[in-house]
Write a structure and sequence with these properties.
By secondary structure, this protein is an alpha+beta fold. The protein folds into 2 domains: 84 residues, ATP Synthase, domain 1, CATH 2.60.15.10; 43 residues, ATP synthase delta/epsilon subunit, C-terminal domain (Single alpha-helices involved in coiled-coils or other helix-helix interfaces, Up-down Bundle). Helices cover 25% and strands 46% of the residues. The chain contains 2 helices and 7 strands. Strands 1-2-5-6-7 form a 5-stranded mixed beta barrel. A hairpin with a 2-residue loop joins strand 2 and strand 3. The chain starts with a strand and ends with a helix.
Length: 135
């Protein structure tokens, strides 16, 4: 049986996950990647999406991450994310409201709207809603 690895997921405000895991799957900016014990060290950027892992008992867990960086080492994975929250902590109604606000901004045609910011907000909201729906 393979050894476990440590997973740390932190944001500027808090530590979201700090526990032993069997495997970590993360949304890298160039595609999803997986890390097992003994992995070759690397550093990568993350895109908005679901980070999945199996805890030490083998139960699958999910964490929403919004951009950031991941460092994989042979014995641990450290994720520094702009924002992150466990699937169980996602407020679906808040995410739906954020999606609606972003859609209104994108459809407004107002030249003063920061369309890139609105698109990113919409992507974050949709990702949260989708992840919460996989419960």
């Amino acid at each position: 049986m393979a050894e476990n690895i440590r997973l740390e997921v932190v944001t500027p405000e808090k530590s979201v996950v700090s526990e032993g895991t069997q495997i970590v799957m993360a949304p890298g900016s160039l595609g999803e990647f997986g890390v097992l014990s003994g992995h070759t060290p690397f550093l990568t950027t993350l895109k908005t999406g679901a980070l999945k892992y199996k805890d030490e008992s083998g139960r699958e867990r999910f964490v929403f991450v919004s951009s950031g960086f991941a460092e994989a080492l042979p014995d641990r994975v450290t994720v520094l994310a702009e924002s992150a929250e466990r699937r169980k902590d996602i407020d679906v109604q808040r995410a739906k409201s954020a999606a609606e606000r972003a859609e209104v901004r994108l459809q407004s045609g107002d030249r003063d709207i920061d369309f890139l910011r609105a698109k990113v907000a919409l992507l974050r909201a949709i990702s949260r809603i989708q992840l919460a729906g996989t419960r």
